[in-house]
Amino acid sequence: MSDHVHILITGDEGQGRSLLLSKRKIKGTVICIAALLFTFAVTSYSALYGIRTNANLSNQVAALHSKLSTLSSTLEKSATSNDALALQLNSLKEQNNTQEKLFRQEKATLLNTAVSELEERSAMIERIMCNIGVDIKDKAPADSSNSGGPFIIPQENVGKELLYRSDIYLETIHYVPLGRPVPGKVSSRYGHRTDPINGKRGFHTGVDLQGRSGEPILATADGVVRKALRNGGYGKYVEIDHGNGYVTKFAHMKKILVKRGEKVARGQQVGLLGNSGRSTGSHLHYEICFKGDPINPSKFMHTKTLNQVAAIKELNTDNKTKRILLAKTSQQAAAISKSN
Description:
The chain is α+β, with helices and mostly antiparallel strands. It is built from three helices and 14 strands. It has helices at 23-132, 158-173, 310-339; strands at residues 4-10, 16-22, 186-188, 191-194, 201-204, 207-210, 216-218, 223-230, 236-241, 246-256, 263-264, 269-273, 283-290, 293-295. Strands 3, 6, 7, 8, 9, 10, 11, 12, 13 and 14 form a ten-stranded antiparallel sheet that branches. A two-stranded antiparallel ribbon has the order 1-2. Strands 4-5 form a two-stranded antiparallel sheet. A hairpin with a 6-residue loop joins β4 (191-194) and β5. α1 crosses α3 (310-339). It is rod-shaped.
């Protein structure tokens, strides 16, 4: 078997050419070409893979740059927001300090006003009680027997002293008949007089106050209705017990507006002015008794009208609120003083 290969090449004109090639050379040539093709294929694939990888990495880098830009923008916004919050916090602190100062000033003003108001009203009650001859007794017992203990210097506390004194005054004045039950003028005074019906000398246990028929009659102090009926010559009659020895009586009414056992307050309407019973015309017979004996109502009526006793009535009705407010204000003022 020959190791050579004959290749015959013929042309268009019939001329031919013979080539003698070695099989080993052909195999070597084919192997070299195949190796070159394989190397080229591997190199091309590697190049394409590298290009794709580089493109992906570029995209990732671009995405990272975009995220970094976003984060930077977010951080800048956060820094700006933090600065704004810091400014707001400082502003709130300043406002809080200002409000605290205003609060202290307001509490001090409120305390001074409450104390001044209590002093003024207490003085007014003292004057009224003095004018009508009513003693205001201290709550503390006068008897000092069977008592003792160490001596302690009292602390100066104007607020508590005023509250204590106000309580004493209110307990007294709540149930003392003050002012006029009707605004009309006095037609017959307390004491000796000539009877308007029989013309004889007699004693008038109250005062007669003129007025129009149907005019409201007002209670002059807090109390409980003891009688509400037709009472002979007194006509339609109401009697109020004030629980402290004082009793007020209202006679010759046109109509009674309260019932026996009913609690009434100063200024409350108890009836209508009239001409019932032993009477010569529309008027109110108003009488004040103390411990069973009639007394002259004139001093008690010097406050003129119940409307002018409105300050006392207001003090009676809202005293609890005033006391709580003053007590709270005193505590807050003491706390502020300690903090300073």
